[in-house]
Amino acid sequence: MAVMPSPPGSFKQSWLERCRQCSRCGLSAERQHVVISRGDPSAKVMVIGEAPGASEDIQGLPFVGRSGQLLDQLLRTVGFNPDSDLFICNVVKCRPPNNRKPSSAELRACRPWIEEQLAHVDPLVVVLVGATAVAAMLKRKQAMRSLRGVWIEQAGRLWMPVFHPAYLLRNPSREPGKPVAMTLEDLRQVRLRLCQCEPASGALFPCPPPP
Ligand code: SF4
């Protein structure tokens, strides 16, 4: 039977299969799925969160539970299409029991997968969702209140830390100055960085809708 060619930018089937069968750490014991990614592997923006939760473990896709739905809503508000403009994944690919934070050993074990995803997608901008993702990718352990909304240039890339949507669900006010409004500002900064307002970007997107 003829093998269908993969879409441009796709990960090789052999890589995906190795990742799906990974048992480098104990999280492999209870997972339903290795949650690898969603979105476009040739996207210019990569979104990296912490680890899958219950819905993600069941569906095998990152950020599809209540937190993910809120994140998608905020991304759409600033003009991103999460399916075609972004590549979305986590620093740890299997669900930690009871949604606990991944341990240092689990983060270390899973590190090669996110490194390979980052190298393959090679995005212009990386959005880091929550403190665990920032600490894992950049070795920075400050409070998110001081990290969020400030561009970081490190390791030859441009990073934007934002609050985790689970935190936003616990703080749902949409008033100016509250975490949801701050996150919209941060995501709008990302969008602006890649549109015609920023000549160096090569105008990858139309300008974002006004706030
Ligand atoms: S969390 Fe990462 S390292 Fe651990 S089993 Fe899953 S894919 Fe492998």
Instruction: Please tally the β strands and state the result.
Output: 6
Strand order of the largest sheet: 1-3-2-4-6-5
What is the H level of CATH, i.e. the homologous superfamily? Uracil-DNA glycosylase-like domain
- What's the helix-strand series? HEEHHEHEHHEEHH
Oligomer: single chain
Uncertain parts? none
Look up the CATH topology: Uracil-DNA Glycosylase, subunit E
CATH architecture: 3-Layer(aba) Sandwich
- Please indicate the count of domains: 1
**Which distinct ligands sit in these coordinates?**
iron/sulfur cluster
Average predicted confidence as pLDDT: 92
Q: What is the CA-based Rg, rounded?
A: 17 Å
Number of helices: 8
Structural class based on helices, strands and sheet pairing:
alpha/beta
Report the helical percentage.
25-40%
The major β-sheet equals:
6 strands, mixed
What fraction of the residues are assigned to beta strands by DSSP?
Answer: 5-15%
Shape type: globular
N- and C-termini, Cα separation: 52 Å
Question: CATH class, please?
Answer: Alpha Beta
Descriptive account of the structure:
There is one protein chain. This protein is an alpha/beta fold and about 210 residues long. The chain has one domain (about 15-195): Uracil-DNA glycosylase-like domain (Uracil-DNA Glycosylase, subunit E, 3-Layer(aba) Sandwich). Helices cover about 35% and strands about 10% of the residues. A 6-stranded mixed β-sheet has the order 1-3-2-4-6-5, sandwiched between helices. The longest helix has 18 residues, at about 105-120. The model has no long low-confidence stretch (mean pLDDT about 90). It binds iron/sulfur cluster. Iron/sulfur cluster binds near residues 27, 92, 106, 110 and 113.
